[in-house]
Amino acid sequence: MIKYLLIFIPFISFSQGDWEKVDPQVFVEVLRTFEKTIAEGESYSFETHYSIYNDHKDQTPVKQFKGSLICKSGKELNVRQMGQLMIQNPAMNLTIDTVSKQLVIQQADPSFFYRKTVDDYLKFSEMAEGIYRKKLVEQDVYILELKKGFPYKSMEITVTKQGTITQVIIYSNQPYQVDNTDYSNARAKIVMDMRDFRKGKSVDFKGFLTIGDFIKQEREKLIPTGSYSHYELIDLRN
After folding, report:
1. Parallel, antiparallel, or unpaired: how do β-strands 189-199 and 44-53 relate?
2. 89 within a domain of the structure (yes/no)
3. Burial 43-62 (b: 16+ CB within 10 A, else e)
4. Segment holding 125, helix H or strand E
5. Is residue 187, in this structure, part of any structural domain at all?
6. What mean pLDDT, rounded, does the chain reach?
7. pTM > 0.90
């Protein structure tokens, strides 16, 4: 799951007593706890709600959209985001682009299901100049100040006391609309809320799609099928 989380130094002033600097190992344990809430091979799902602001001080987003992720038995994925659907099984990865009317096949990406190690998380935390935490009644908020050279400035992660990540806020080094001269000095903010987290038998597979719903094998060739038969098929595996 951590593969879907992004990163970024906050535009706030740390006040004594609210924020405390924490060792990277503390943050590593937070990420490990989040991943361990899902047993290996267990199904899970959640919704994502994105709000993108041209500047971190803006009150109104310039773009909003929803997404979702469903993982079936730790082997198959449906990821919906920004008008695209990505499906993965052990054999391949398929992206359905309804705007361009394309079906794009790639090699299956094992990192979607790979269980991260302590070293993996430590490498992730090494990108941060500093990690800070603010403890609240029902949740903790972590801020990662990224080192210079990264496209993002900082990242803010909200975690419940049960170890579930509910929100990620990314602060950029540039405005979202780079061609808008009114925002030439702006720094975009991307807010991702993770909602309706489910696992095991509570996961709703209604509407869950497989690669076979889009392509079929005819002799030694893969071709689009059904209502997608007019789509262009692009195979990037070779």
Report:
1. antiparallel
2. no
3. bbbbebbbbbbbbbebeebb
4. helix 118-125
5. yes
6. 85
7. no
